[in-house]
Amino acid sequence: MVEAVAPVVEEEEVEVVVREYDGGRDRDGVEEVERECEVGSSGGGSGKMCLFTDLLGDPLCRIRNSPAYLMLVAETATGTGGGGGAGGKKIIGLVRGCVKYVASGSTRDKDPIYTKVAYILGLRVSPTHRRRGVGKKLVERMEEWFRQKGAEYSYMATEQDNEASVRLFTGRCGYAKFRTPSVLVHPVFRHALGLSRRASIVRLEPRDAERLYRWHFAAVEFFPDDIDAVLSNALSLGTFLAVPAGAAARWDGDVEAFLASPPASWAVLSVWNCMDAFRLEVRGAPRAVRAAAGATRLVDRAAPWLGIPSIPNLFAPFGLYFLYGLGGSGPELPRLVRALCRHAHNMARRGGCGVVATEVGERDPVRAGVPHWARLGAEDLWCIKRLADGYTHGTLGDWSKAQPGRSIFVDPREF
Prior knowledge:
This protein is α+β, with helices and mostly antiparallel strands. The protein has eight helices and 15 strands. The longest helix has 19 residues, at about 335-350. The radius of gyration is 22 Å and the shape is globular.
């Protein structure tokens, strides 16, 4: 995801206590900090549009599905009260992190190499306490926990133009720029999208989807070793395989037969229901923009058969479906990916979502088939830091210095 790292510029230090999040006493303070921090490259200036996230009362929603996770809060050592703190203390910052095994490359024999990595997300510092070292303290304490869990690397994601966050991580915390995937977003129209008769779409059972993913993605960077837990999660709405029309009859749903002799072209993706974890809202839009968007919906409602693109109401809380595990091969790959994305759009329409989104590597061949509106997406930046002194796999060496592959696997649990 375009990482929700609020602009953080560190200067003068402030005395704070960093500790583990306590849901019983910290929720109100955390929600206050979240409300104060506007998300998005437009920043928090007056009159600018910003993206806000409603965590639906669960500050852990973006990490609780990971194998191991932690949330830390920064609290003023003394204060005058408010912000959910006890004894006059106030929560002024927070950060989340999780740890898991992911693919980081492959051996010369093409066997995947799995590495224990950590992910930092959701760094927030109250606007009244920025430039005082709070963000750096939160990151350093989270890294201590990562090391205790045996993580060899830590990484984070933000928008490429979020200069303050990039400066904090690369300038003060020792991270290096690593990968530059793109977040591609498409609005959900009021009308359903027609599906191509030249493609057959088959829904896979989680066990079959796992076999296919381990066969195709095993050595792709950041592919999670516990993909079975991802696919069987209640938020995962299904995995769908697209092949040229008529090709499905050759294997009749037998994934083993498919893997033994795949068609010349095929594509796959899975759908994750972010809507039940959090909601988004665009704030600060001028009236003219809201009116123009509303007009497109009125036309689409009155004449859905025209198939006129309509802009959903993004100016009130809306949900999204995230498309993950996009892959495939063959000359018809873009067309088949497009068919799957249209199928996912119709799922999101039935589910009441405002947008569908995905994140892909800058050189990933599936990118050509993903329908998206450029103005709704963003260019992402992933930064990485080596935490361990040695290397688990000598054949890989220092992963942070490895050249990027064509594809990258984006875990939906961390979007």
